[in-house]
Amino acid sequence: MTYRSKLLVALSLLSLADPGTAAPAGPEPQPTVPQLTIYAAKGPPESCGPGCDRWIAIEGKIERGAAARVERFFRERKDVNRPIYFNSPGGEMHEAFAIGRLLRTRKATGRVGSTIVDACPGAQMDDACMMVKSARDEVVATITTRGAVCGSACTFVLFGAQTREIAPDAAVVVHGPKVQMEFGLNISEKRREEAIAKAHGDADRLALAYVEEMGISRELVALADSISHESFHVLTRQELYRFGIDRRDVAETPWVMEKAPRPSVGKLAEVKKGDGFEKLKWQLFCDGKAQARLLFFGEANKDANGTKAVAMVAGSAKPPLFSKVPVRVGPAEIWTAVITPEAMKDLMTVARLQMGESTVMPDGRSTSFLFEIETRGLEAAWTQLAATCPASQLGAAPAKWPMPFRLPAPPAERGQSPGVQ
């Protein structure tokens, strides 16, 4: 029996059984460095994707001369076919165009993420850390997408990547251009306004030509123009998809250890469903040495009048059994399954898990929705969690329901517009 067939059977059994009747933690995001920096990094196995442990970091403000430094970096290195992680508030638009065009010639893969360098003694943006990044051929580091931002002019650099992948907990931020001009003392107010209007028009024409060159919808420029340069707009998953920035049907994070308030292992995803995207979350808690508890968060549909069931399949192994009726907490529906140590091993032996949702309507009609998620990071994160789980927890009452489901909120720094120059 195929994975798809097995998952459909599991969903059918769950639905027929009761016919009557969703943020991973990581290092705190660091302030970006004041000047654009590019360097090579190496991390744990699969830290930047399946089979990937090396990447390039581009972070900081895009100032004049940044494009020349990026070009020199690629000219001097041989192993440049690595994914590139951006974490930048923006900066000078023309420099961003130049960097983006350079990346396009190299058919780069671009993502939004923060590189956390192991050897940095203090903050990731201080002088000591800058020396570490610039003095070494390759730094040892980890990646976190949570709270990472590619804003303003950084988006033009990101668009230069031939493949773009935005994690559910990272942000792509846009707003209108900021025009900086100097005027003589005797210039009239009318001439001043005319000059500023012309500069805005020129910026729009350049931006339109560039996004079309990179295969991005012109709608993006119109949206950005509607946002004051003193404010910002975080692109939704639907906008990322519609504008052609990230056209994946499933955007997900790896499984990661969450240390507070109660240790757990978590994963986020945004999955295309019909004309929109649904936000999903998985969270594993240790209930003792003999079992774990898996919570699956989905978005509650207030208008739904059918009976919904969920199922997970890990290859040919026996699938976990989720509760028949979800618990509703805020905007989330939460299903629970008890996972034995043997079942945990089954989950970690496959590269991908098959998930499915089935809804039986009052008239007997049913619909099914199937998708897959990675198990990347699950084994390492679960090993960390298991080490914190004392035998005395066995038989203890399960934890209270988590806070209402939501993707991680943007960091406080996003309240300040990362202006385009």
Description:
The protein has 421 residues and is of the alpha+beta class. The chain has 2 domains: 3-24 and 253-393, Immunoglobulin-like (Sandwich), CATH 2.60.40; 37-248, 2-enoyl-CoA Hydratase, Chain A, domain 1 (Alpha-Beta Complex). The chain has 10 helices and 20 strands. The protein has helices at residues 3-17, 66-76, 93-105, 127-135, 154-160, 189-213, 219-225, 237-242, 341-348, 378-387, and strands spanning 37-42, 54-59, 84-87, 109-112, 114-117, 139-144, 149-151, 163-165, 171-174, 233-234, 250-252, 256-258, 264-273, 276-286, 292-299, 307-313, 327-329, 332-339, 352-360, 366-374. The strands form 4 sheets. Strands 5-6-1-2-3-4-8 form a 7-stranded mixed β-sheet, sandwiched between helices. Helix 2 runs parallel beside helix 3 (93-105) and helix 3 packs parallel to helix 5. The longest helix has 25 residues, at 189-213. The chain is globular, with a radius of gyration of 24 Å. The model is unreliable at 1-33 and 392-421 (pLDDT under 50).
